[in-house]
């Protein structure tokens, strides 16, 4: 083995050690091993790698949803490296476990920035975690990419929001539901900032449409007892339910509905968090006939999407499914890598500006980073959950929707005051850890 080959082998083993620090990520070793073999073909293979921080919940109640996002991000890294890397340099993913806990996320992002010296960080799911990470990346003037649909009500010069804003998920879903499911709704969610914000947006829109939110229930984050929400739904007999329940609490919620005789035929649920991934863990009998609202579903009939699903399954197994957050995580890595190429450097200040206006033909369609808001133009689809566990698209927006982070039912100041009220009431936390809260 010549000197260059030995150096490349060492680089591959170094990257492999970095990414296998958590037991879950051991399976990702094949990605880096394959990538290391490809590095030997590069003309500039002795260039140091560009590090990309990846932080998701690999343990705790959110791991059901976030582990697959890591798979999608590592697939994007592998494909970029197979194509020659970025600026002739390999990408090195440095993966950290947020453990479904906001404080842990903040510590991990601090470590990725200061110790691992990554060029950017991508990650999080819950808004409580993102809001805890936000001051860390702003203090270091770093770049964070957030690939999760969320409540909006935020902008930051240090964050690129690639997940759907409320104008791209919540608002079109409420309008479709009002037109097709009825006027009276119960709002249920996990007890933290995202569901409270989503439900405030929904209440405003229902009032404008002439509908009504007849009840509102919040469940402790990560709980496996959904009886309070089920009882409220049974008592109020709404036309339908909007759900922002996160993570594995969905198992208890949908099972509880079925056991209480609340079927999709009489009380359909429109979820903003259940995707193809969660359906693999949920009973088909509990889910059939309910709805889910996202920018992306695996069933989107585009050649680009079909090829993406094939590549993902070829890497991880034919029984795997792809969800919105996975697709978003995947194209987010590609968007960032393209910005680095166009900037000619991974320099944070250059990339942070170059990524604005960046477009990519993602599996769902064309997505573009909006320069004015640092959010992304996204598609919208309403999906019906079938008995076979698949999601059938029943309605789609004709074109990508412009991101509007702050819904116009209130002023920016009113939304900021609303958020500050939650934060203060919860004792300077973005999660209500004191009690289950209901209206």
Automatic annotation (TrEMBL):
InterPro entries: ABC_urea-bd_UrtA
Keyword Phosphoprotein part of the UniProt annotation: no
CDD domains assigned to the protein according to its UniProt record, in alphabetical order: PBP1_FmdD-like
Signal peptide: none
Transmembrane residue ranges: 21-42
Keywords, sorted A to Z: Membrane, Transmembrane, Transmembrane helix
PANTHER family: ALIPHATIC AMIDASE EXPRESSION-REGULATING PROTEIN (PTHR47628:SF1), PTHR47628
Protein name, UniProt field: Urea ABC transporter substrate-binding protein
